[in-house]
Amino acid sequence: MPTDKLITLITASNQGIGYHAAAQIAASGQHYVLAGARDKTKGQRSVDSLISEGVPSENVEPVQIDVDSNDSISAAAKVVEENFGRLDYAGVYNTNVFGAAVTTEAFLPLLRKSTRPGGKKILFVSSGTSSLSTALAPDSVIPAHMHSNYRSSKTAENMVMAGFATLLKDEGFLVGAICPGFCGTNLNGYQGPKKAEDGARAIVRAATEEGLREAVHGKLWHQKEEVFGQVWEEGTYDW
After folding, report:
1. Any signal peptide, and if so, which residues (predicted)?
2. Which of 42, 113, 150, 195 is catalytic?
3. Helix, strand, coil percentages, rounded to 5, for the chain
4. Pairing verdict, β 121-125 and 174-179
5. Are 68 and 164 part of one and the same domain?
6. How do the pLDDT tens digits run along the chain, 239 residues long?
């Protein structure tokens, strides 16, 4: 098993933003990507697709993990421990806040074993719509009553991120929440104006650009975005 690269787990990487994040991170050559998927067959199929699109086969492999199942999360953590002995980076993609928290807790002992430069990173995929300030602003283009179930789950996930960011900062971790922007995926019926691969670049940048550490840690970070005619320059959303 490769140990000279950053061992990188990306959950829900068989489709959408997770798939493209896995593709871009694996293509960098610095990471060995564990492409997570609930279904073993779909996971292998997504890895085959990544390889057919040019990702080197020596940079990626599938791992079965259902972030809504504690047993599946524990089993995946055991596989990573047995095969690699550590984890350098975890990208958590999930609409279920409890799954995100349990996944991070399960892999934290392995993340703490990371000693490589660029390791000890945990990134949660969130949304700018999770911001209470944005939701309550009088001129908000996405007021609080719109998509409240999804948004509240992401607001709660931000709090999970903040807890880990506070807990792990003195251990040299980077923990942050990333907004990929309004991307067209199966979650929204492909209605977003951005492509999933464009949204994935925000996650890849946060994972690979060391200069963004202070901008990302403990924050909800985004690239320059334009939604419904309103522009947000690259930076962080207010809570």
Report:
1. none
2. 150
3. 45, 20, 35
4. parallel
5. no
6. 667 899 999 999 999 999 999 999 999 999 999 999 999 999 999 999 999 999 999 999 999 999 999 999 999 999 999 999 999 999 998 767 899 999 999 999 999 999 999 999 999 999 988 888 888 888 877 777 777 888 899 999 999 999 999 999 999 999 999 999 877 677 766 677 788 999 999 999 999 999 999 999 999 999 987 776 778 789 999 98
Catalytic residue among 120, 121, 154, 219: 154
Cα angle: 206, vertex 190, 228; to 5 degrees: 75
| Whether the Cβ atoms of residue 37 and residue 65 lie closer than 8 Å to each other | yes
Query: How many other C-beta atoms lie within 10 A of the C-beta of residue 65?
Result: 29
| Tokens 């999930």 -> residue | 94
Torsion of CA 53, 55, 58, 62, to 10 degrees: -70
* Cβ 20 vs Cβ 196: under 8 Å: yes
Which region holds residue 218: left if phi is over 0, alpha if psi is between -120 and 50, else beta?
left
**Which has the closest alpha carbon to 55: 36, 41, 35, 40?**
35
Residue with tokens 């179930």: 149
| Spatial separation of the C-alpha atoms in residues 150 and 153, rounded to whole Å | 5
Q: Is the same domain home to 154 and 142?
A: yes
- Tell me which residue has tokens 């060391």: 210
Contact call for residues 163 and 108 (beta carbons, < 8 A)? no
Let me know if residue 169 belongs to a domain. Answer: yes
Residue 142 φ then ψ, to 5°: -130, 80
CATH number, domain containing residue 49: 3.40.50.720
237 among known catalytic residues: no
